[in-house]
């Protein structure tokens, strides 16, 4: 057997290579200077350079629809689009991380190294066309995340969060790996297209394959915090430093959902034998929406509230995933999911960014009271937060509304009307807790003195830019949606 | 005389059953125990059970993919153990014991 790697294969994976090289440079400089941290702004510039080069290379290879390394990686619209979302999110989180009290001390270089390598793992998972590669990418980004959380300068809760995430994450990836072993045993290969072409037949006849496929779904559901596997998310999101929370809540979900979408492309949900599981998945979507929204209702800590809200958003995406997997007009479901990943990433990272800007100590944990009077003292920041929260609720001209609209309309077209109704009910519940911070910002008198501290300029600019994007893409959602549909149509 | 031949012929099913049993032990260790080190051991046990089932399936299918997968899993398990033990050291420095009963800051 002869294995040939062509030059074009290396060209296709060059975004990951570029990110890795640029993540090493600041670390190397630090070592050569005798373990003395260089100016964190210079480190940040190295990181930006890596990300910009990687994004350029991703755009260059995006339309190629090629596979690399004997079919182990695939470069289609889905992976290219996800890659761009990931790189954008990473650039924003890196900006936040430099400005945060809990991540930027003498360890910013290490933080940046880990974050860029985290993105390398995520890109690998987004490109993966083989279950081995999926697993390697998943573990690479998870291990980087565990370490980044534990590196936080805040000592108590971050250690707890890191360990909880580590144990539950390893547990879930072991389950997923067990599922992969059964899939390998029944299909005879770990190559994803082999699995996808064999899935409808094997799901109907082979119980071992069914078990493996369900375990694989469980592993993915854990990463995106679908209902019975969601319990880690609030604890970990609250305990981690806010820049990392913003990164986890967006990038990890984006890449796991993209992989979920790739699995769903097998149209497994249209196989009659799988229907009981589809019923379970539908109930899980409903329960995820309810648990997320009702949980967010009760929270005092804003970070914890946002964590529950991100669980609810996973529920909405699951509706789209079910619509994408049951045959018929599945394209619409897939397009809705991709659009939602994009819109959710922008608005969630923006909302976490506002919380991050208001944190003055490494261990601050903001509550609703801390937002009082923000509308008077920092009007622009309050306006940005208002836009982002309205978008998360799904108020019409914003990006979040279109995200929900495309998913729910796909569900209705596929005959999943009751799911769409539950989604709308969930959104109505969410109005309460998304509007409460807005009320606190504009209508309540401050209790604890005014906001006299300076906002850190780079993060402030990033947050304003994200709020602007939320409005702009909301008003011009049609071209984006068409682009997403065009990129997804080649996969499905 | 009893026919012991059928019992002695070890096939794919036996290996899969064994890997299932080991995997369950690992799961129980992770879920029931409070000691951080024992939980790490549980995770390792789960990953090794998966390795066993990969090797058994690879032998059955007669291709090398399963064996290659085992090498990947071993490498990743080693990396995971490294990170896990580093976290255990960090927890020990803070709480002077490696036990998760100190974890009560985050709830609700």
If you had to describe this structure to a student in words, what would you say it looks like?
The complex is a heterodimer of chains A (492) and B (108). Chain A is mostly helical. Chain A is built from 20 helices and two strands. Chain A has helices at 7-12, 14-32, 40-61, 77-99, 108-127, 131-150, 156-187, 192-205, 207-224, 232-239, 242-264, 275-297, 302-325, 330-358, 374-377, 379-393, 399-413, 417-443, 457-475, 477-489; strands spanning 66-68, 73-75. A two-stranded antiparallel ribbon of chain A has the order 1-2. Chain A starts with 6 loop residues before the first helix and ends with a helix. With 108 residues, chain B is an all-alpha fold. Chain B contains four helices and no strands. The chains are: A mainly alpha (492), B mainly alpha (108). Chain A binds chain B through residues 132, 135-136, 139, 143, 146-147, 150, 155-157, 159-164, 166-167, 170-171, 174-175, 177-178, 180-182, 184-185, 188-190, 234-235, 238-239, 298-299, 301, 304, and chain B through 16, 23, 26-27, 30, 36, 39, 43, 46-47, 49-50, 53-54, 56-58, 60-61, 63, 65-66, 68-69, 72-73, 76, 79-80, 83-84, 86-87, 90-91, 94, 100, 102-103, 105-108.
Strand content of chain A: under 5%
Overall tally of domains of chain A: 1
Rg of Cα set of chain A = 22 Å
The H-and-E topology of chain B, N to C, reads as HHHH
User: How many beta-strand elements of chain A?
Assistant: 2
Shape of chain B: elongated
Which radius of gyration of chain B do the C-alpha atoms yield?
Answer: 19 Å
Helix/strand structural class of chain A: mainly alpha
Give the number of DSSP strands of chain B.
0
Oligomer: heterodimer
* Count, helices of chain B: 4
**Amount of beta strand of chain B:** under 5%
Mind telling me which CATH architecture of chain B this is? Orthogonal Bundle
Principal-axis shape of chain A: globular
What is the CATH first-level class name of chain B? Mainly Alpha
Query: Roughly what percent helix of chain A?
Result: over 70%
Number of folding domains of chain B?
1
The main β sheet of chain B shows up as:
none
What level of helicity do the residues of chain B show?
over 70%
CATH topology of chain B: Helix Hairpins
């Amino acid at each position: 057997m002869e294995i040939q790697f062509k030059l074009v294969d290396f060209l296709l994976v060059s975004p990951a290579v570029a990110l890795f090289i640029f993540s090493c440079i600041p670390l190397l400089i630090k070592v050569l200077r005798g373990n003395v941290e260089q100016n964190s702004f210079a480190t940040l510039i190295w990181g930006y350079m890596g990300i910009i080069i990687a994004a350029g290379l991703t755009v260059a290879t995006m339309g190629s629809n090629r596979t690399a390394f004997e079919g182990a990686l695939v470069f289609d619209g889905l992976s290219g689009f996800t890659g761009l979302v990931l790189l954008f999110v990473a650039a924003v989180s890196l900006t936040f991380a430099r400005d945060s009290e809990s991540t930027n001390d003498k360890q910013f270089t290490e933080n940046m190294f880990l974050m860029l390598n985290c993105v390398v793992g995520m890109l690998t998972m987004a490109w993966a066309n083989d279950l081995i590669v999926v697993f390697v990418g998943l573990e690479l980004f998870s291990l980087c995340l565990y370490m980044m959380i534990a590196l936080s300068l805040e000592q108590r809760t971050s250690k707890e969060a890191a360990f909880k995430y580590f144990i539950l994450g390893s547990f879930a990836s072991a389950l997923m790996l067990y599922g992969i072993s059964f899939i390998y045993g029944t299909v005879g290969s770990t190559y994803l297209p082999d699995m996808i072409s064999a899935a409808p037949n094997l799901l109907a006849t082979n119980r071992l394959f069914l078990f493996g496929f369900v375990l694989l779904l469980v592993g993915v559901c854990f990463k995106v915090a679908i209902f019975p596997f969601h319990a880690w998310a609030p604890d970990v999101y609250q305990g981690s430093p806010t820049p990392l929370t913003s990164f986890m809540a967006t990038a990890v979900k984006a890449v796991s959902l993209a992989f979920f979408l790739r699995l769903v492309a097998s149209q497994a949900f249209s196989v009659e034998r799988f229907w009981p599981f589809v019923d379970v998945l539908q109930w899980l979507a409903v329960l995820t929406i309810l648990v997320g929204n009702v949980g967010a209702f009760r929270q005092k800590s804003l970070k914890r509230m946002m964590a529950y809200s991100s669980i609810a958003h996973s529920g909405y995406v699951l509706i789209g995933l079910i619509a994408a997997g049951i045959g018929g007009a599945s394209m619409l479901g897939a397009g809705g999911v991709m659009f939602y990943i994009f819109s959710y990433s922008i608005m969630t990272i923006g909302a976490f960014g506002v919380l991050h800007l208001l944190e003055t100590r490494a261990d601050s944990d903001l509550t609703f009271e801390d937002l009082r009077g923000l509308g008077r003292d920092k009007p622009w920041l309050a306006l940005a937060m208002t836009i982002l929260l309205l978008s998360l609720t799904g108020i019409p001209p914003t990006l979040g509304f279109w995200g929900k609209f495309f998913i729910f309309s796909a569900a209705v077209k596929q005959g999943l009307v009751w799911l769409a109704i539950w989604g709308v009910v969930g959104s109505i519940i969410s109005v309460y807790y998304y509007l409460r911070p807005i009320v606190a910002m504009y209508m309540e008198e401050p209790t604890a003195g005014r906001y006299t501290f300076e906002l850190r300029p780079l993060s402030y600019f990033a947050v304003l830019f994200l709020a602007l994007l939320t409005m702009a893409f909301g008003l011009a959602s049609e071209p984006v949606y068409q682009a997403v549909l065009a990129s997804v149509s080649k996969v499905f | 005389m009893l026919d012991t031949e059928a019992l002695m012929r070890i096939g794919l099913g036996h290996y899969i059953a064994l890997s299932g049993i080991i995997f369950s032990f690992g799961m129980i260790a992770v879920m029931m125990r409070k000691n951080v080190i024992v939980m790490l051991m549980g995770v390792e046990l789960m990953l090794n059970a998966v390795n066993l089932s990969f090797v058994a399936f690879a032998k059955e299918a007669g291709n090398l993919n399963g064996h290659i997968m085992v090498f990947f899993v071993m490498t990743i398990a080693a990396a995971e153990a490294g990170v896990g033990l580093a976290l255990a050291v960090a927890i020990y420095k803070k709480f002077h014991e490696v036990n998760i009963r100190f974890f009560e800051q985050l709830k609700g």
